[in-house]
Amino acid sequence: MLAVEAANTFPLAGAGLGLRRGMFQMLSDLTNDDVDFMEVAPENWIGIGGRFGRRFREYAERFPIVCHGLSLSIGAPAPLDVEFVREVGQFLREFNIRGYSEHLSYCSDDKGHLYDLMPIPFTEESAHYVAGRVRQVQDILGTQIALENVSYYAAPGQEIDELSFVNTVLQEADCLLLLDVNNIYVNSVNFGYDPHHYLQNLDLKRTAYVHVAGHFCEAEDLRIDTHGTTVDAEVWSLLEAAYELIGPVPTLLERDFNFPPLPELLGEINQIRTLQKAPKTVRPS
């Protein structure tokens, strides 16, 4: 089993849930017996006051919170938005956030934001470029951040494989990994690779925490990462394989819309906990 080096940087444990405004009423009576931690996008809460601001503060006082950003645009050609990074840092301090993660992608250029996650070209040059920007962010925040392996549907300008690109960025930036097992599965179907081989060769010792989510089956060879349905059996299997490799690391359920009744959500949280408690063996390499 690999040693996980991120525990002190992201002080989390157990099974978490992504906090969405549409869930506020449904989750009002939730306790730490139900969910161990929650995750929010800082962009949705920086500077928010009124009743939504008060409700968020209540959740932040009741649960450990981790941030998963949407608009850092770490691979963008435009200069890094340093002022935004400082605002994120202030938010992390104000609410005692346990860690900050982002997507290994980009969503903007010098004209503005696209509000979608675009794939960074898989090249050595872009890997070095992104790693430099990550180091800049970490210097401003004074801590390591985690990057998520993202789902994508095209690979423009590809010169190296996805796995090599992700590992190069993680190692050169000396940052952490937000391991998204659903994204591995979605990409493996869409691009025809073995998800277990990908998982076993990812730099898992850098894992801060894990994402698990549902996806939409568009066709036999096309999956769409939606976070709008229950977790697929193949994704649960991949999560179990991750635990066999790195132990029961903190894991968060993402659900962005089509919210089911609370017992169904908690059922998936309990499935995470069940897998985390199961005996682990190291798979042969």
The tally of helices reads 8
* Beta-strand residue percentage: 15-25%
Tell me the domain tally.
Answer: 1
How confident overall, as mean pLDDT?
A: 91
CATH topology: TIM Barrel
Structural classification: alpha/beta
| Topology, number of strands | 12
Structure, briefly:
By secondary structure, the chain is of the alpha/beta class. The protein has helices at residues 50-62, 82-94, 124-141, 162-173, 181-191, 195-201, 233-246, 262-277; strands at 15-18, 37-40, 65-68, 100-103, 106-109, 112-118, 146-148, 176-180, 207-213, 215-219, 222-225, 251-254.
Question: Mind sketching the topology for me?
Answer:
Blueprint: E1 15-18, E2 37-40, H1 50-62, E3 65-68, H2 82-94, E4 100-103, E5 106-109, E6 112-118, H3 124-141, E7 146-148, H4 162-173, E8 176-180, H5 181-191, H6 195-201, E9 207-213, E10 215-219, E11 222-225, H7 233-246, E12 251-254, H8 262-277
Parallel strand pairs: 1-2, 1-12, 2-3, 3-4, 4-7, 7-8, 8-9, 9-12
Antiparallel strand pairs: 5-6, 10-11
Helix pairs in contact: 3-4, 6-7
